[in-house]
Write a structure and sequence with these properties.
Blueprint: H1 4-20, E1 42-48, E2 54-59, E3 67-72, E4 82-87, E5 105-112, E6 119-126, H2 130-133, E7 160-164, E8 170-176, E9 179-187, E10 193-204, E11 211-224, E12 236-238, E13 241-249, E14 261-267, E15 273-278, E16 283-287, E17 300-301, E18 316-321, E19 326-331, E20 335-340, E21 345-349, E22 364-370, E23 373-378, E24 383-389
Antiparallel strand pairs: 1-24, 2-3, 3-4, 5-6, 6-7, 7-8, 8-12, 9-10, 10-11, 11-13, 14-15, 15-16, 16-17, 18-19, 19-20, 20-21, 22-23, 23-24
C-alpha cells in the first residue's frame, strides 16, 4: 500500500523508535477508533493530565449535564488553597471561570434550591482552617496562652457550605459551630444539604450541672429557613439555615452508623436515600435520607451477603450513583467498583484498563458517573480518567 497511509505509518514508526531511545512520547489521551467488544466491561477512552491537586468531581445528571472539577493544593495562611471550575465533559478543558469566594474547598455536590424539586444548585464544602478560626489574640496562633479557651475568634475561617447556581454565581453560605471538622457533602432535590464530619457532643455527667465535651463522627442534615418554632439556629452562622434535629447518622458500626464518613451522594432513583463512603468501617453504605421511611431492609452496606464477590475495601473515599440505580465506589488504595442497587449485587471493576500513559490508578479519590460514562480523579498522578461501558 502506497500514498498517505504509508506516510502516516512511517511517521508513527519513527516516533516510536525515538520513544524507545529515551525520548518522551505522550500517548493519545482520547481513543475514538478502537473496537468495542460487546462484553459490558469499561473501556478507558480519555486521560486528562495536568490535573494537579484534583480532589473531587461533580457530574450533574440528565439532559444538559455539566462536569465540575475541584482542585486543592494545600497551603497555610489566608490565601486561597483551591478552586472549582466547570470542564468540558469530552475535551477535559475548562469552559468557565473559577467559582468565586472559595478558601479551602474539599468536596462538592449538586442540590436543589428548595422550590423546584430539581438539582439546580452546586454546593461546595469549604473546610476552612481550624487553627486560623481559633487564633489566640494574645499569641497569634491556636494555642492556650493566657488561658485562652480555643474559642472561635475568626468565623470567616471556619468551615462553610457555599451555594452557587449552575453557572458558578455565588448565592449564599452557612456554617455550623457544633461540627468541628468536615469531609463530605451531598444535596437533595428538596433543598436539603448533608455534611459528614466530626461533631462536638455534650454528654451528661453524674453532676446534672455539668456536661462532658467529646467528639464523635456524624452525618447531619441542614434545611433552609429557621427552625420549626420560628427561631434561628444558634449554632448556624451565615444564611438562613438550620440543622434538622430529627435526622443524623450517628457514630457506630451498624447500618445507618458511621465511622469517619467521607464522600456522600444523595439519590432519588434508589430511594430516595443517602450513600456514604464509610472509611472507618471499610465499606460504602446506603442509609435513610430522613425524608421517606423505606424500611430497614432497604438499607445495606457493601459487606452485605448480597454483594458476594465484591472487593474488601481498604480506603473507600467516595461514592456516587447513576440514574439507572447503579452505584460506584472509589477506593483510594487503587480501584473503582460498580454495584447494582436492585437486584443487590456486585457488578464489576471499572478500571480494568490502564490509563493512556500505561499506568494503573494511583490514588483514586473521587468518582462521578452518568449512564455509560464514569470519571475518576487520580490524585497521585494528577489526572482525570474517563471510561465508557461497552455495550
Amino acid at each position: 500500500m502506497r500514498g498517505p497511509t504509508c506516510i502516516r505509518l512511517a511517521l508513527l514508526a519513527a516516533i516510536l523508535a525515538l520513544a524507545g531511545c529515551g525520548s518522551s512520547f505522550d500517548l493519545p489521551t482520547e481513543s475514538t477508533n478502537r473496537a468495542i467488544p460487546p462484553d459490558g466491561s469499561y473501556q478507558m477512552i480519555a486521560t486528562w493530565p495536568g490535573m494537579t491537586g484534583v480532589g473531587d468531581l461533580l457530574l450533574t445528571q440528565g439532559t444538559g449535564s455539566q462536569l465540575f472539577l475541584l482542585f486543592n493544593t494545600g497551603g497555610s495562611g489566608t490565601a486561597p488553597r483551591g478552586s472549582v471550575v466547570e470542564y468540558s465533559r469530552t475535551l477535559g478543558s475548562p469552559i468557565g471561570p473559577p467559582f468565586a469566594g472559595l478558601f479551602n474547598p474539599v468536596a462538592l455536590c449538586a442540590g436543589g434550591d428548595g422550590a423546584a424539586n430539581r438539582l439546580n444548585r452546586v454546593f461546595v464544602l469549604d473546610q476552612g482552617d481550624t487553627c486560623l478560626a481559633r487564633r489566640n489574640p494574645v499569641s497569634g496562633t491556636c494555642d492556650t496562652t493566657g488561658r485562652f479557651g480555643l474559642r472561635i475568634t475568626q468565623i470567616q475561617y471556619y468551615w462553610y457550605v457555599r451555594e452557587f447556581d449552575l453557572l458558578g454565581n455565588p448565592i449564599g453560605a452557612f456554617t455550623d459551630t457544633s461540627l468541628a471538622f468536615v469531609n463530605g457533602i451531598a444535596g437533595d432535590a428538596q433543598g436539603g444539604v448533608y455534611v459528614s464530619g466530626l461533631a462536638i457532643i455534650l454528654k451528661p455527667t453524674d453532676d446534672p450541672r455539668l456536661t462532658d465535651r467529646t467528639f464523635e463522627f456524624r452525618v447531619y442534615r441542614y434545611l433552609r429557613g429557621p427552625r420549626s418554632n420560628g427561631t434561628p439556629d444558634p449554632n448556624i452562622s451565615g444564611a438562613s439555615w438550620h440543622r434538622d434535629p430529627d435526622y443524623e447518622a450517628p457514630q457506630g458500626p451498624g447500618i445507618g452508623g458511621v465511622i469517619d464518613p467521607r464522600g456522600l451522594h444523595w439519590s432519588a432513583v434508589t430511594g430516595p436515600s443517602l450513600f456514604v463512603a464509610d472509611l472507618g468501617n471499610f465499606r460504602a453504605e446506603k442509609i435513610s435520607d430522613g425524608t421517606v421511611d423505606l424500611g430497614g431492609a432497604y438499607y445495606y452496606d457493601t459487606r452485605d451477603p448480597g454483594f458476594d464477590g465484591g472487593p474488601a475495601f481498604t480506603e473507600p473515599l467516595d461514592v456516587t450513583a447513576d440514574l439507572q440505580g447503579f452505584f460506584y465506589v472509589a477506593d483510594a488504595s487503587g480501584s473503582v467498583h460498580r454495584f447494582s442497587n436492585e437486584p443487590r449485587a456486585y457488578v464489576q471493576r471499572v478500571d480494568v484498563e490502564r490509563d493512556a500513559f500505561g499506568d494503573p490508578l494511583g490514588r483514586p479519590v473521587a468518582v462521578a458517573a452518568d449512564g455509560d460514562f464514569v470519571y475518576v480523579a487520580d490524585q497521585d498522578r494528577g489526572r482525570v480518567i474517563r471510561y465508557r461501558r461497552r455495550a
